[in-house]
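Subject: HTH luxR-type domain-containing protein structure
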Amino acid sequence: MQASQRIADQRAVQRTRSETQPLTEREVEILALMGKGLSVKGVAQTLGISPGTVTWHAKNSYIKLGACSREVALRKARAQKIIEGIVVCEVCACAMASRSWVSVQALAQA
């Protein structure tokens, strides 16, 4: 077996293991704050940790959720009821945080 194939196989096994592991409390906490609209820097300031640490935990949660981006991770976390705040927009049927939903409702009534 070629070295590149072995590496690919090892990564696939690692990815599968990661996706079956539950999120840690810190990963959930960070996703919840991101779901409220905080930036990496904002989450770091709120929790008193470095932005690099926030990014590390966020990336780990993306892997565990099988997500390719922050938006997808938040959508999956809300759908799995890991974090709160899923609301379906009546305009475009996308999943939105409650904060955004209020502004959409206000615009619709105006």
